[in-house]
Amino acid sequence: MEITVKDKGGATVLTLSGRLDLASGTTLKEQVKSQLKKGNTMIHLNLAQVDFINSSGLGALVSIMKEVRLAKGRFTLSNLASYVEEIFEITQLSHIFEIFSTEEEAISSYHVASVR
Amino acid sequence: MAGTVTWTYPSVKESGDRFLDDLALFLEPLGLEQHQFHYLTLSLSEAFTNALVHGNKLDETKLVTVRLTVNDLEISADIIDQGRGGLEAVRTRPRPELLAESGRGVDFMERYCASVEFMEDADGGLTVRLRVPRRHEKKRVQ
Question: What is this model's ipTM?
């Protein structure tokens, strides 16, 4: 899995591509932890290029969500492929995560939240 | 297409990706529908990860063996670890809580496979046998 990082609209956006599983989930958790240590607590993941996720990948996302909450930050997801979306639905994690259709919608929501 | 292949992997995290690469190449000529490919890949990935992490406890001296068989009717897979007590662990596993970071793998297998069997050798070592019909219909589960 490849991870690219950029700052956009007050959030740190991580764009993932490839599989999100045991090994890549560990890498992703480390990447987000390093962002949190820098004080970047608004974390968005763009999953458009993620073509596979398993329970280890889901576990990594749950772990990240907990870490971000502990840091009083915010964690959002966007661009889920239909297969990935189905996995979120059947595990009911779709009710737990903040999921947006597009990265732009997610970033706009950060802006709205900061204006309030 | 019909036949059997057997692969073995050391119990390191990176083997998960190697297995999925091998699996994708193996499944490609079967011409599975995309959703069937995803469900099968997910189910086998869950069994493989359980073998690595829970069975062999990421001990790289232990191997995970995968035996895949394809015929006109079904695809079946045996995923075999070299751990101990796996059968009891499966039988007594708790239902995962919503915010659990693990424990969903067997539920995925049971959802997407026609059958899931767990067998343990006298010497230890859990075999997970998954069967998926070539024309797969998703089971309704709660």
Answer: 0.87
